[in-house]
Amino acid sequence: MTAPEIRFVRVVDDEGWRAVQSIRQRVFVEEQRCSPSDEWDEHDATARHVLGVIEGEPAACARWRVVAYRGAPAAKLERFAILEAHRGNGYGRPLVRFVVEEARRSGHRRFVLNAQSHLQEFYESLGFQDDGERFTEVGIPHIPMRRFE
Question: Which domains occur in the chain, in start order?
Answer without folding.
Answer: 6-148 (3.40.630.30)
